[in-house]
Amino acid sequence: MVSAVENSLAMPILFLALCSLCLSCSAFSPQDYSDALEKSILFYEGQRPGKLPSNQLLKWRADSGLHDGSSYHVDLVGGYYDAGDNVKFGLPMAFTTTSLAWSVIEFGSSMSARARMPEPPSVGVGDPNMDHHCWERPEDMDIPRNVYKDELLCGASWIHRASQNVSYLAYIQSNGHTLGAEDDDFSFSWDDKQAGTKVVLSKGFLEKNIQEFQLYKAHSDNYICSLIPGSPNFQVQYTPRYPLHVQNRGSSLQSVHAQPGKIDCNYGFQYLYSGSPNPNVLVGAVLRGPDSKDNFADNRNNYQQSEPATYFNAPFVGALAFFAAQSNAN
Ligand SMILES: *[C@@H]1O[C@H](CO)[C@@H](O)[C@H](O)[C@H]1NC(C)=O
């Protein structure tokens, strides 16, 4: 997992990348968008803990984390590893789940049956400090698996949208000030869902004419517009080239199928620092990407550029579904 501050910097870049996609639609063929959509979802198979299903497509992964929660006498097996590490975080995964569910709500009709969405996750499992002192495959994990808790106002907005239950309207009205009505938002991230929550509420005004939510439309407009002018503008290209040194434990170490003997915590670090390409391709991973000067080192130990995360892919899925459907219709 990247820190909240770093993550909040990363998200505007993702959104800029999406803006660039809009501006350069002609560079993409309809098949490119469909392919990118499938791969953006396939990525989640590489992040799967627990007992893998027989239809798992990324064959280099195997079962792992089969005892999660057992020290607390609860079953927390399953879910998704967060990023390049072997931890299942609560808040980041909540953001990922929210973004993916939102993608389905907005663009689900544009997604083919082949786009198999990830299944809902469990709560947070693992100790990030201990995990970051190990470079080992998920299958070899033997460090403690702790449990974390999770948050709310974003949830109330979604429940209200789904149920129109006035209790949630009242809750949002009395707690909406924590959304920072007067504050500008500069990012939408797992650590700060305010911008997204305001967009959900503004849709309540636009689509259901809920006057109480009118002020959130102005906030959402400001947020979207703030991302474009004067920002570094990354062009997104569709090319056969991709990063070879993705900062992800499972992808960078030999598959347990190829090398069944345990690779322990410290021994694995030589692979983190190695210049060799990852033995297993983490298909579809969106990485944190180039620096502000558009340089990308493709260096595994440079997590600021080379780490993937479930919450980097998640906002792309809906956008790719939209563009795939647009270009298929044309
Ligand atoms: C609305 O939500 C509240 C809080 O969850 C619940 O107690 C109440 O039964 C709900 N009302 C309806 C009509 O579903």
UniProtKB/TrEMBL annotation:
SUPFAM superfamilies: Six-hairpin glycosidases. GO terms for biological process: cellulose catabolic process. Its EC number is 3.2.1.4. It catalyses: Endohydrolysis of (1->4)-beta-D-glucosidic linkages in cellulose, lichenin and cereal beta-D-glucans. Residues 1-27 form the signal peptide. Keywords: Carbohydrate metabolism, Cellulose degradation, Glycosidase, Hydrolase, Polysaccharide degradation, Signal. It holds the Pfam family Glyco_hydro_9. The active site is at residues 298, 307. It comes from the Eukaryota. Gene3D superfamilies: 1.50.10.10. One of its GO terms (molecular function) is cellulase activity. Residues 33-149, 234-320 form the Glycoside hydrolase family domain. Belongs to the glycosyl hydrolase 9 (cellulase E) family. This is Endoglucanase.
